[in-house]
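Please, is this right?
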Amino acid sequence: MARNSLAGKSTGKSKSAKYYAKNKKSRKKKNEYDKEYSSTEKRKKYRASLNRANKKAKTYGNKDGKDMSHTKKGKLVKEKQSKNRARNRGKK
């Protein structure tokens, strides 16, 4: 799959990224868990619903830098990818 052309160029690593870079055993365990979690029916349906909303909003795959974002009330609205994906990630 092609790299996301809208993705930023990271200049540093988070604490967890540094940890997993140093600890091969932990990284392997995490990757196994992530793979298992992402392949559950619940997560597949969730991703499919978000993709469906993106396609309906005509923002899927057109590189306009927009995502469908959940509001606090559960509604889906268009929002910049950078703002949507950066939310709730904690302080660096």
Observations:
- The longest strand covers residues 66-70.
- The two ends are 30 Å apart (CA to CA).
- The chain has a mean pLDDT of 85.
- The chain is about 50% helix and 10% strand.
